[in-house]
Amino acid sequence: MNTIPTITKNLLIINVLMFLGTIVAQSYGIDLARYLGLHFFLAADFNAAQLMTYMFMHAGFTHLFFNMFAVWMFGRILEQVWGPKRFLFYYLMCGIGAGISQEIVQYIHYEMVLSAYDSVNTGIAILPMKEYLNLMTTVGASGSVYAILLAFGMLFPNQQMFIFPLPVPIKAKYFVIGYFLIELYEGFANNAGDNVAHFAHLGGMVFGFILIMYWRKKNRGNGYYYN
């Protein structure tokens, strides 16, 4: 842990502690996701602070592990290149941007489909719309993680990467493009039972792209952002 840069290390620690806190709270009958997860903004349980807190919550160990593995693998490199302040700003802003993107997608779905009904049949029970909206909750650092992947691909586009199960290495830029296209397809496919916030992932990447292009333009020629 001593070799991991400060911000990356603290992000790992905070996310793990929040996950453990969620487990402990559940043993006392408290669902932290109800308070810290990002609710749909028309739901009664929505709070603007959730745009920040939701990215430190995770739905399960696998969700946490793969997100934190990506933060450790790619985040520490970005922090070494950008410095701690810029990396932390990027991580948080892309997480917030991912949350905003998810809210927009949920609102479109609400206006096009849900607003015409007073209740929703979940397959288990028929819930009043007010209760159903409170179930539309997003958790996880995936928006920030996808933004980190994008940044790595833009900073080191020709870096060779071994990606299981591919038998040959691929360049980082193709790795990022592939992830983007997969998320775009899955988002529009809207498969039944798919509870992954694909458009939040895409939103994190879009916000990350905007930030990087802004920094490139602002710092062009002074050697601060790129050599």
Features:
6 strands, two-stranded antiparallel sheet, protease, 227 residues, mainly alpha, 9 helices, 6% strand, single chain
Number of strands: 6
Mean pLDDT: 89
Q: Characterize the overall form.
A: globular
Adjacency order of strands in the biggest sheet: 1-4
Q: How many helices in DSSP terms?
A: 9
Order of helices and strands: HHEHHHEEHEHEEHH
Largest sheet: 2 strands, antiparallel
Poorly predicted residue ranges:
none
Structural class: mainly alpha
Radius of gyration: 19 Å
Terminal residue distance: 29 Å
Query: What is the helix fraction of residues, given as a range?
Result: 55-70%
Q: Approximately how much beta-strand content do the residues carry?
A: 5-15%
Describe what you observe in this structure:
This protein is mainly alpha-helical and about 230 residues long. It contains nine helices and six strands. It has helices at about 5-25, 30-35, 50-55, 60-80, 85-110, 130-135, 140-155, 170-190, 200-220, and strands at about 40, 120, 125-130, 135-140, 160, 170. The strands form three sheets. The protein has a two-stranded antiparallel sheet with strand order 1-4. The chain has a two-stranded antiparallel sheet with strand order 2-3. A hairpin with an 8-residue loop joins β5 and β6 (about 170). α7 (about 140-155) packs antiparallel against α8 (about 170-190) and α7 (about 140-155) packs across α9 (about 200-220). It is globular, with a radius of gyration of 19 Å. It starts with 5 loop residues before the first helix and ends in a 9-residue tail after the last helix. Keywords: Hydrolase, Membrane, Protease, Transmembrane, Transmembrane helix. InterPro entries: Peptidase_S54_rhomboid_dom, Rhomboid-like_sf. This is Rhomboid family intramembrane serine protease. It is a multi-pass membrane protein. It comes from Bacteroides muris (ex Fokt et al. 2023).
